Amino acid sequence: MKNNKNNSLKLLIGGLLILVFLILANMVETMVKERQERKYEAIEEVGSKWGEDQILAGPVLTVPYKKNMGQNEKGEHIFQTDYINFLPNNLDIKGDVNSKILKRGIFEIVTYNSKLFFSGDFKNLNFEKYNIKKENVLADQAVISVFIPDMRGINETVKLKWNNRDFDFNPGIGDKEGNVIFNPKNRLYKFSGISTRVPLTLQDTDQSDDFYFELDLNGSKELSFLPFGKQTNVAVNSDWPYPSFDGAFLPDEREVNDSGFSANWKILQLNRGYPQSWKGALEDVDLVFNSIFKIKLLVGVDHYQKTMRSVKYAILFISLTFLFFFFMETINKIRIHPLQYVLVGLALVLFFTLLLSISEYISFGWAYLASTVATIGLIGFYSKSVLGKIKFSLMISLVLTLLYVFIYIILQMQETSLLIGSIGLFIILAAIMFFTRKVNWYSDSNSEKPKKSDK
């Protein structure tokens, strides 16, 4: 009965210690988040100089026309300049996105340089749809605009080939009066970009104005497109092996391997919710930006994410280690002081701090190995004195080794980590139940079988 009370008290103290160390592990998790936020700050800082996320939209053809506002007192017609915007009939975008790793202190930031080729045409510009007479169209004042949110990323002069004639793009979009394409009151989007004036030849027959330009652009993290063509075709190749495709449209074809990726999109006007032309500045800008599709350059599972995931298993490390020491203490009649449990628990928590700090300088795998060897070596050496026999020390070292290897395997997985982790935990619990199934926890001798009487 006395032994039963002692075991219950030990379990109670052990449970309280586990709660204390879980609080410490949560503090380590907070530390990981702080370091991760510092990395994000470094990414933003580098992006502000190299080039931030780029969202490419265009080209858009803006055509001014004279709007009849009636007559004045003298009977003369009063005209006001208004604008009509057209999107391309066909829009083809092809190019390469080459990754570049930049360093800011100890942090590595994924950036890219993209070389993109835009081609297509504007066909059958329908002014009659808006009751605009051709003689009121200011065809010599038409403007081609391309939206680029971070102009600092442009590396080379951008030249437009319009019907086999060359024009230089200039900063700014729309017209000299400002943005007449989208409502500038919407502050959620950056309406910056480049534009140039082009001549229109208004004909009664089918009209087609062809365009072509190249864009050498830096950016970081993401490259996004808006499908402005009646039919938009995008083909992108990259040397980055960890892409993520997001947004309103996924690639029709994709190929991802260790040497990079290639992806192709084909998007029709019918797939989005805005027209090919509109008068004045478009109010519902959200409708346009809801059709965005993105390429994200990920870092796989970076060392902060892996460290964060490993901290989630702190309860497993601490509970199983304490449980092992408790079994050794109970079965082999060894007295272990609560302070000794505290020291072992601190060593287990210190593992995560070592892992976080070392992984900022070397690869996560080597950091995990170094932290594991240090922790197992420390606990194994200390348990030799606590448990009294070297075989017990080797046993706890073996258990910890298997546990750390198991957690490392889970951390390398993304899709199947939950399945493998659940199966592994079930096997661990089954093993504990198997090896302790004959222990008589109520017996003072803790023998596997009750002794028979001498009668």
Strand content: 25-35%
Give the tally of structural domains.
2
Distance between the termini: 24 Å
Estimate percent helicity: 25-40%
What do we call the CATH topology of the largest domain? Immunoglobulin-like
CATH class of the largest domain: Mainly Beta
Number of contiguous helices: 8
Net shape: elongated
Total DSSP E strands: 17
Mean pLDDT, all residues: 81
Order of helices and strands: HEEEEEEEEEEEEEEEEHEHHHHHH
CATH architecture label of the largest domain: Sandwich
Task: Work out the radius of gyration.
Answer: 34 Å
Reported for the largest beta sheet, the result is: 9 strands, mixed
Question: Which tags fit this structure?
Answer:
455 residues, alpha+beta, Immunoglobulin-like, 2 domains, 9-stranded mixed β-sheet, 8-stranded mixed β-sheet, 8 helices, 17 strands, elongated
Question: What's this entry about, in short?
Answer:
The chain is an alpha+beta fold. The chain has helices at residues 2-50, 285-289, 303-311, 314-331, 338-359, 364-387, 390-412, 417-435; strands at 54-71, 77-86, 90-104, 107-123, 142-147, 159-162, 165-168, 170-171, 193-198, 208-220, 222-225, 231-238, 243-247, 253-257, 260-268, 277-279, 293-297. It has 2 domains: 2-37 and 303-435, no CATH class; 52-297, Sandwich (Immunoglobulin-like), CATH 2.60.40.
Written description of the protein model:
The protein is of the alpha+beta class. The protein folds into two domains: 2-37 and 303-435, no CATH class; 52-297, Sandwich (Immunoglobulin-like). It is built from eight helices and 17 strands. The strands form two sheets. Strands 1, 2, 5, 8, 9, 11, 13, 16 and 17 form a nine-stranded mixed beta sheet that branches. An eight-stranded mixed beta sheet has the order 7-6-10-4-3-12-15-14. Strand 1 (54-71) and strand 2 (77-86) form a beta hairpin. Helix 1 (2-50) packs antiparallel against helix 4 (314-331), helix 1 (2-50) runs parallel beside helix 5 (338-359) and helix 5 (338-359) packs antiparallel against helix 6 (364-387). The two termini are 24 Å apart.
